Amino acid sequence: MMSPSPAGPPTGRPADPPAGPLTEPPASFTPSTGPPDDWTFRVDGLTKRFGAVVANDDITLRVEPGEVYGLLGPNGAGKSTLVKQTIGLLKPTSGRITLGRFDLVADPDAARQLCSYLPQVQMPIDSFHVSEAIELAGRIRGGSAREVRGRTASLIDTLDLGEWKNALGHSLSGGVRRLVGFCMAIVRPGRVVILDEPTNDVDPLRRRLLWEEIRALGAHGCAVLLVTHNVLEAEKSVDRLAVIHKGRLLAEGTPSSMKTADRSQLRLQLMLAPGTATPGLPPWAGPAVRVGNNLVTTIAEADASVAITWAAEMTNAGAAEEYALGAMTLEDAYIRLTSHMSGNDDDAEDG
Ligand SMILES: Nc1ncnc2c1ncn2[C@@H]1O[C@H](COP(=O)(O)OP(=O)(O)O)[C@@H](O)[C@H]1O
Ligand SMILES: [Mg+2]
Questions:
Q1: CB distance 349 to ligand 1 below 6 Å
Q2: Which atom of ligand 1 is nearest to the CA of 350?
Q3: Which residue of 29, 117, 225, 281 is most buried, as measured by CB atoms within 10 A?
């Protein structure tokens, strides 16, 4: 279940998983029929309209306990709309969302008890100290004072937040606030953990710690539904993923299966010298995408040696500073699916 960390060897140790059993529903909840040990999270034919906008268009997916499932898509794809419906913040136009035998749409109280949620928008914690805010979130979710204090200390330690543990919320940078929000969401995780863009604004080192902590939730048996537009990080950290675009689920699978369609293709990347016009490409090259001085195109495996000769000539002539030929990445597959540039950190909209 553990996957390699996104950026080299880990520097931290994942926090101890939360002690004790995973959240059980209170007896007052009235489950429909079904086995009591079924904790699979299922979305079936989910459609959500806002007037003329179809934000979710007949989406079906499932997340097993222990699985980290990535939901990828450009801004406005419908990711936040989907996760908000799972915890009763929005009502579906049609379709079902269930956790085992529990109907999360019909029973929003059960949904909030059984699911943990980090919203895309920052949490209002201005007048709380960091450790206080995390402990409070754990108490609200039913943890004992002792359990919640221990888990809070462990999370602050693992995510390297010690220097801010007594700081007030209003004094924190965006990235630290994001991490505190993450701790609040998982201090006492539910059966399903929903994280909407958890890595936004977080620095690269703590981002790596955060991914390890997300993996630890899976190892503890939680079903993790993770919204992100960071394809490169998702590729290394999720078990399965779905690409959503304009409300529709375009593709679903493991990161490696998503690249299957591109197996016979290689990516050729040229770092052009600054100020160089985009060169005319030879006939064996596919369509090229240029971002800044970075030019990426696809070629057939059979053309690898002629491509290297061409790229080396471009480099020797000074048109390019360097080149690389390698396997297609998930990002290439993603761009092909959505015809959209991504992998950036733009996050203008809130969800
Ligand atoms: N409360 C709302 N009222 C009207 N339109 C909305 C609302 N929330 C989201 N939308 C629209 O639904 C679409 C999907 O939005 P969202 O789920 O936030 O996308 P994402 O999280 O993938 O960026 C967008 O076109 C957005 O403008
Ligand atoms: Mg969103």
A1: yes
A2: 18
A3: 225
Q: Which of 122, 167, 166, 115 minimizes the C-alpha distance to 141? A: 115
C-alpha distances in Å from residue 95, one per residue of 105, 106, 303: 9, 11, 47
Q: How many whole angstroms from 200 Cα to the centroid of ligand 2? A: 11
Whether 75 is in the pocket of ligand 1, judged by its Cβ within 6 Å, is: yes
Decide: 55 in ligand 1 pocket, CB within 6 A.
Answer: yes
Model confidence pLDDT, tens digit, residues 67-122: 999 999 989 999 999 999 999 999 999 999 999 999 999 999 999 999 999 999 87
Closest ligand 1 atom to Cα of 48? 12
Q: What kind of architecture, by CATH, is found in domain 41-252?
A: 3-Layer(aba) Sandwich (3.40)
- Whole-angstrom CA distances from 130 to 122, 153, 184, 328 are 14, 11, 10, 42
Closest ligand 1 atom to residue 51 Cα is 4
Query: What's the whole-number average pLDDT of the chain?
Result: 87
b (16+ CB within 10 A) / e for 228-248: bbbbbbbbebbbbbbbbbebe
